[in-house]
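Worked example 2:
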Amino acid sequence: MKLMAEQTTEEIRNKHIRLDGSCHAKAVARGQMTFTVVEQDATAVETVAEWIKLNARTAPPAKLYEALEFVLAAREFPNQKHAD
């Protein structure tokens, strides 16, 4: 497994594409609403960084790591825009 610093942005993005077993799929199966933030969103970095800050003591390390990877990838996303 590559360290985060050794992964390309594309590798990070592809790692998080899941077809089943995801947090989203589990939430939907329980009837919970979800909200998606995409890396193109101009507020994505700040939004997810704040989530990391607020959950740093309680979230599983793997979830924090995934959120940090998203932040790093979103920082590099070209042509970010505000919500439509």
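Residues 34 and 71 are 19 Å apart (CA to CA). The chain is about 50% helix and 0% strand.
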